[in-house]
Amino acid sequence: MNVRTSAGNGVVGSAADAGLPDEVDVVVIGSGGSGLMAALSAATGGARVLVLESEPLVGGTTAISGGAVWVPNHGYSYKALKTWDTPEAARTYLLGEGRDKVLDPDVVDTFIDTAPQMARFIEKHTYLSWIPVVWPDYTSDIPGASNYRSLFPGPFSPDVLGEAAALVRPPKKSGMARNPLPLWVINKIQGVWLAGYAMIGALLEGCLRRGVDVRVEARAVRLLAGEHGVTGVVVRAGGEERTVRASQGVVLASGGFEDSEELTSKYLGAPFPVQVSPRGHHGDAVRMAQEAGADLVAIDQAWWMPGIQVPGEEMDGAPISRLVQGERALPHTIMVNSHGERFANEAVSYNDLGAIMRQADPVTGEMPNATAWMIFDEYYHSHYGFLSTPPGGMYPPNVVQAPTLEELARKCGIDPEGLVRTVEEFNPLAAQGRDPWFNRGTSTFERFFGDHNPFLGSRSPNAWAPSATERARLATATAVAPVAGRVMARIAKDRNPARMRKMLVPSLAKIMRPALDNPPTGALGPVDTPPYYAVKVEASAIGTIGGPATDATGRVLDTEGVVIPGLYAAGNVGGAATHGFYGGAGGTIVLGMVFGYLAGRHAASRELQGR
């Protein structure tokens, strides 16, 4: 399928059908957020750009994500949000807790200074509008933290993409139970794309309008490198290999290596038993960068994520797991290992919890918490949605049920005595909102996703009639969503970000801000109402981090710290400016976007610089 947009000269389609040019200025390997950002940046700088995507669809992990970007000092709607921010506060936050001794301060400063520029660049050159929301930083109670740095993609009308919309990877199902963001209505909106789907759609349209060529089913297999640096790439498409020259540079932006058993075993201790990202992240870019002489950094790090595999759910013909996020922060649930013991604060960020789950015993090398069980009771079942099941509904078959904790443990292969002992110790203090073992519910971020009804308290329909309330919400959302979608599509096509923010931000802030004051009991509650439930949770990653070392413009460095001319990296394959520290919602995507923006801009200017 080859599509040429009416707004520009770009082409998107299969490399086997469209063929490949012999030479361009810049080749970008990967079509996720970092890749399309690099392509758009280079194209606006006047470069002829080719994007290579090994999979049949454009978008990578970004397309199925929430699409947020974590942008300190972004400056959007600060009056409506009743907030402010400074580069100094962001620097304090990012370099705190000893990270100033590990991270490159020049790279961190470049990120802080460039992130707002990148956000405005996207609004200038695409149909995307950024919507700032109330969302605490993931390490929310340390100096420099903020509750207002995450920007979410506003609605995007796929009409502007035409037939090219069919080549954008669609979103996957989410398992989020409760969320301060009113997902119950947002998820029903029709006629526009949201979240990462919207971001990729907007970036692709912007690239095509600027004349970028995007080839899917085109796998880069080797870099062309010599004494003058990297000058092109060898591409496998349609069963054949073709050489494409890149006169100004190659940008590696193809994601991590979480789908490679060889590399995850070598660098991360073991393969992932479940996958939460799309297939295709085999580590090709890591291998190619090494062959070009690049130094590797953060190779033992990942953006960790617990996952739940729901039977029958697949993507690209392979099982794809649900993310386990806010549902862990609700009361009346805990997580235990096979010994029936809690091992972490269940309500911390998914990255922090996933890292704990993947910790290996220094003696045996085993990961005792890599497979865990989320345990909850009937109160949880009757009050909260879970795995797309409404309160009180019927769970999919991977959720185990039993009348007693002992029987539940036996069904799951958990030590019964250990589970009973853990629950009996946990319950009395949890009822008081206390967790002396792991301090759950003590940070703003942990409480933000808890159970709280700030406007009516115990009189809220959420509290006394959760199932009926969910049905009423669904009916309301179904009724208003078509109209809301048409209105948002019209504003999106007008390319009026200020108007979009004026319409959405004040209301969202009023809805979400009260969650910042959730009490500890919103995140803690006893597990004491039978029957009991359990679901297996396994450690995975939304992407690995390790890849070639880069400088502050995304240029790849060799083992001596010298720039490899013509080679750049951004996203999960490089540009790991924080080496695994996850700033907040969108903290991974924004790194790829910022350094993709810088890499594309620098590559486009190499001709003027004499390379």
Automatic annotation (TrEMBL):
Gene Ontology biological process terms in this record: steroid metabolic process
Gene3D superfamilies given in the database record: FAD/NAD(P)-binding domain (3.50.50.60), Succinate dehydrogenase/fumarate reductase flavoprotein, catalytic domain (3.90.700.10)
Transmembrane segments: 580-599
Domain FAD-dependent oxidoreductase 2 FAD-binding: 25-588
Entry annotated with the keyword Hydrolase: no
Highest taxon in the source lineage: Bacteria
Alphabetic keyword roster: FAD, Flavoprotein, Membrane, Oxidoreductase, Transmembrane, Transmembrane helix
Pfam families noted in UniProt: FAD_binding_2 (PF00890)
A molecular function (GO) term: steroid dehydrogenase activity, acting on the CH-CH group of donors
Name listed for the protein in its UniProt record: FAD-dependent oxidoreductase
